[in-house]
Amino acid sequence: MSKQDGSSRQVSTTPVEDLTARILHVDMDAFFASVELLEHPELVGKPVIVGHPSARSVVTAATYEARKFGVNSAMPMALALRRCPQAIVLEPHYDRYTRYSGIVMDLFRDITPHVEVLGIDEAFLDVASARRLMGTPWQIGTLIRERVFAETGLRCSVGAAATKYVAKLASSRSKPDGLLVVPEADTLDFLHPQPISALWGVGVKTAEKLERLGLRTIGDVAQTPLDTLSRAVGSATSAHLNALARGWDPRHVVTEHTEKSIGHERTFERDISDTSELEKELLRLSNAVGVRLRRSGVLARTIALKLRFGDFSTISRSRTLADPTDLGRRIYEEARSLYAESGRTGEPVRLIGVRGEQLTGAAADLGLWDDDGDWRDADADARRDHGEVRAHARAARDAARRRPRSPDADARRPDLTVSGRGGNVPSSERAVPSRFGGPPGVPGDGGG
């Protein structure tokens, strides 16, 4: 985590039209401290330290106001209070940090499925697939910062670049509450003036060895012969530092392959009190969740509803099903029921969300009796990415035409309708993809 106090802040103050900075690093600003300030708004703007008020404890996090006095995370609390005796010490609440981290990471996954979580308060995002819908990396970074603040009241900093290393360095330089875009063509111009301590993997001892060679900046490292670096820090480290100093970092964003839940939510432009309007939005969100469940080949055993009201109070309700489902209509019925039973119908709602949890295997794992059979036939129309549905339907019709029919065939034959694209599926059953749809894809200290 960055220990800077924001005094060397560098940001992109105007829109950047570049499309090459496809990798974003998003880092929450003073995460633990900022979460605590949500409960203590009267302390905003004051030096605050998060940790146990014991001389033998260490600093968990500190606000930027405290950092200006030289207070950093992992510092002994006694030293921190000597440097900033007027600081206010708040006890940490890790359950709050976990809850807000989950909200933030879900917001990232709404932007793109390509999210690599680094810890509780930072992540890499590859936004190449989101550019057509959401615009340039600068626009996407701006949207992320706006949404995180609107949903949580927390601030984050975003760095955008062509590589993971430069994106992470850019986010640290833009703190607090900033956005810095480094186009690929400007990578070396951005990197080379930076101090050698900014190289990923350079600690105090390595920095001392490099400084003994007269190296002060990343540009100095880039211009130093590899064999000279090798004699100072070893062959493996020298190759690593040389590559970074030249702007080369081949690593890709590695997404999580195991999903714990799939959900969609929406923040309204104005608070909504009308129950019918909220139920329409529940249906849209439920269908979007169903689409993502089917695309991921999983079923949800638990359906959860999230409501945030006009006063910013938030509640969650959930229900576990007898049989897991991936159907929008079934998810909607449960979500609507949870809303009706919340005891807060009619209150102005700021945000509403639907989520499928306790994900399990594919539809083949269902028991012999499937109460959702009728809905499953209807929802087959939404599986546009599964062409075999239509292929099987055509094959069945062709076989029926070739098969000899007995006079009483119609009497014995059950009523069956096979729907293709735009067929007999009611409009309320069709999955409606969300704008932020798509399947989702080193512990931090919350001090960034």
Total strand segments: 12
Number of H- or I-type helical stretches? 17
Dominant shape: globular
Distance between the termini: 5 Å
CATH topology of the largest domain: Alpha-Beta Plaits
Beta strand %: 15-25%
CATH superfamily of the largest domain: Reverse transcriptase/Diguanylate cyclase domain
Whole-number total of structural domains: 3
Give the class from helix and strand content and strand pairing: alpha+beta
Instruction: Name the helicity range.
Output: 25-40%
Strand and helix order: EHEEHHEHEEHHEHEHHHHHEHEEHEHHH
Task: Name the CATH class of the largest domain.
Answer: Alpha Beta
Q: Which residue ranges are poorly predicted, with pLDDT under 50 across at least 5 consecutive positions?
A: 362-445
**CATH architecture term of the largest domain:** 2-Layer Sandwich
Helix-strand layout with pairing:
Elements: E1 23-28, H1 31-39, E2 48-50, E3 61-62, H2 64-67, H3 77-83, E4 88-90, H4 94-111, E5 115-117, E6 122-126, H5 131-134, H6 137-152, E7 156-161, H7 164-173, E8 179-181, H8 187-191, H9 204-212, H10 218-223, H11 226-233, H12 235-245, E9 261-272, H13 275-296, E10 299-309, E11 314-325, H14 328-340, E12 349-360, H15 373-379, H16 388-402, H17 409-412
Parallel strand pairs: 2-4, 7-8
Antiparallel strand pairs: 1-6, 1-7, 2-3, 5-6, 9-12, 10-11, 10-12
Plain-language structure description:
The protein is α+β, with helices and mostly antiparallel strands. It folds into 3 domains: 1-176, Alpha-Beta Plaits, CATH 3.30.70.270; 192-245, 5' to 3' exonuclease, C-terminal subdomain (DNA polymerase, domain 1, Orthogonal Bundle); 261-380, Dna Ligase, domain 1 (2-Layer Sandwich), CATH 3.30.1490.100. 38% of the residues lie in helices and 17% in strands. It is built from 17 helices and 12 strands. The strands form 3 sheets. The protein has a 5-stranded mixed sheet. Helix 4 runs antiparallel to helix 6 (137-152). The longest helix is centred in the middle third of the chain and has 22 residues, at 275-296. It starts with 22 loop residues before the first strand and ends in a 36-residue tail after the last helix. The model is unreliable at 362-445 (pLDDT under 50).
